[in-house]
């Protein structure tokens, strides 16, 4: 009897397999757990530079020098000779000084070495506006790196440009063809700045006549500051009274908090700070902190509020 029962049981299992072979193994191979590689970042070259220090040569150092130059930490030598070009993969004194400035800004160990913490910070998505390190007050002379930053951590653009006293009611707009999910985050971000200033913001249909022009752009989009694709630079904006604000259209954008995606409102709040005249802050809790990671939302900090009020003399 037992052998006959096993024979019938095996026959039923075999029949089920013939009718639906994939269902039998569905628990072993769940359809939503297929592993897909992450989108490469334009900064992935940095991963191979961990541990690099002055005096060494390495592939990727020319790119790093360009990146730090774009962020305002070192000067690009436009009159370089062939000898300079051949030494571009050399970790030289200028790169060490630039790294120490970067480490000071981000409150890292000021070693001048591409250690794990420094590379991890360099890999984080961020605003494309330079950090303007030279505008931070130092107690030491200009030839030294100061690790003590002033208590007010906000900074301004050189010359402290700002909107004219007659421009307190600013208009904003989007191009005729734009994604709809940007409208609410921008309205919310503008509402946050209006809450702590004397500015008001009003949407108008005519994009070309708006004071603040918000758009999505990709790669080289004609302003001399090309985007770099997914990862790296998220957005950039222009100081008063230019009013342009560009999101990198290649990024994964969302309205809200979603793992692996970047919040439109948080980045908009940051970039609108630039539009109003604020530079980057060295306060990590500030919205004007340069790096903005995926999967969270951030609001205005006290340093942001102090900075914008001091710039315009608002009560």
UniProtKB/TrEMBL annotation:
<dbReference type="InterPro" id="IPR002477">
    <property type="entry name" value="Peptidoglycan-bd-like"/>
</dbReference>
<dbReference type="InterPro" id="IPR001818">
    <property type="entry name" value="Pept_M10_metallopeptidase"/>
</dbReference>
<feature type="binding site">
    <location>
        <position position="221"/>
    </location>
    <ligand>
        <name>Zn(2+) 1</name>
    </ligand>
</feature>
<feature type="binding site" description="in inhibited form">
    <location>
        <position position="127"/>
    </location>
    <ligand>
        <name>Zn(2+) 2</name>
    </ligand>
</feature>
<feature type="binding site">
    <location>
        <position position="288"/>
    </location>
    <ligand>
        <name>Zn(2+) 2</name>
    </ligand>
</feature>
<feature type="binding site">
    <location>
        <position position="280"/>
    </location>
    <ligand>
        <name>Zn(2+) 2</name>
    </ligand>
</feature>
<feature type="binding site">
    <location>
        <position position="211"/>
    </location>
    <ligand>
        <name>Ca(2+) 2</name>
    </ligand>
</feature>
<protein>
    <recommendedName>
        <fullName>Peptidase metallopeptidase domain-containing protein</fullName>
    </recommendedName>
</protein>
<keyword id="KW-0482">Metalloprotease</keyword>
<dbReference type="GO" id="GO:0046872">
    <property type="term" value="F:metal ion binding"/>
</dbReference>
<dbReference type="InterPro" id="IPR021190">
    <property type="entry name" value="Pept_M10A"/>
</dbReference>
<feature type="binding site">
    <location>
        <position position="236"/>
    </location>
    <ligand>
        <name>Zn(2+) 1</name>
    </ligand>
</feature>
<dbReference type="GO" id="GO:0004222">
    <property type="term" value="F:metalloendopeptidase activity"/>
</dbReference>
<dbReference type="InterPro" id="IPR024079">
    <property type="entry name" value="MetalloPept_cat_dom_sf"/>
</dbReference>
<keyword id="KW-0378">Hydrolase</keyword>
<feature type="binding site">
    <location>
        <position position="228"/>
    </location>
    <ligand>
        <name>Ca(2+) 3</name>
    </ligand>
</feature>
<dbReference type="InterPro" id="IPR033739">
    <property type="entry name" value="M10A_MMP"/>
</dbReference>
<feature type="binding site">
    <location>
        <position position="274"/>
    </location>
    <ligand>
        <name>Zn(2+) 2</name>
    </ligand>
</feature>
<keyword id="KW-0106">Calcium</keyword>
<keyword id="KW-0479">Metal-binding</keyword>
<keyword id="KW-0645">Protease</keyword>
<feature type="domain" description="Peptidase metallopeptidase">
    <location>
        <begin position="159"/>
        <end position="314"/>
    </location>
</feature>
<feature type="binding site">
    <location>
        <position position="229"/>
    </location>
    <ligand>
        <name>Ca(2+) 3</name>
    </ligand>
</feature>
<keyword id="KW-0862">Zinc</keyword>
<feature type="binding site">
    <location>
        <position position="251"/>
    </location>
    <ligand>
        <name>Ca(2+) 1</name>
    </ligand>
</feature>
<comment type="similarity">
    <text>Belongs to the peptidase M10A family. Matrix metalloproteinases (MMPs) subfamily.</text>
</comment>
<dbReference type="InterPro" id="IPR006026">
    <property type="entry name" value="Peptidase_Metallo"/>
</dbReference>
<feature type="binding site">
    <location>
        <position position="270"/>
    </location>
    <ligand>
        <name>Zn(2+) 2</name>
    </ligand>
</feature>
<feature type="binding site">
    <location>
        <position position="223"/>
    </location>
    <ligand>
        <name>Zn(2+) 1</name>
    </ligand>
</feature>
<dbReference type="Pfam" id="PF01471">
    <property type="entry name" value="PG_binding_1"/>
</dbReference>
<keyword id="KW-0732">Signal</keyword>
<feature type="active site">
    <location>
        <position position="271"/>
    </location>
</feature>
<dbReference type="GO" id="GO:0006508">
    <property type="term" value="P:proteolysis"/>
</dbReference>
<feature type="binding site">
    <location>
        <position position="251"/>
    </location>
    <ligand>
        <name>Ca(2+) 3</name>
    </ligand>
</feature>
<feature type="signal peptide">
    <location>
        <begin position="1"/>
        <end position="24"/>
    </location>
</feature>
<feature type="binding site">
    <location>
        <position position="246"/>
    </location>
    <ligand>
        <name>Zn(2+) 1</name>
    </ligand>
</feature>
<dbReference type="InterPro" id="IPR036365">
    <property type="entry name" value="PGBD-like_sf"/>
</dbReference>
<dbReference type="Pfam" id="PF00413">
    <property type="entry name" value="Peptidase_M10"/>
</dbReference>
<feature type="binding site">
    <location>
        <position position="248"/>
    </location>
    <ligand>
        <name>Ca(2+) 3</name>
    </ligand>
</feature>
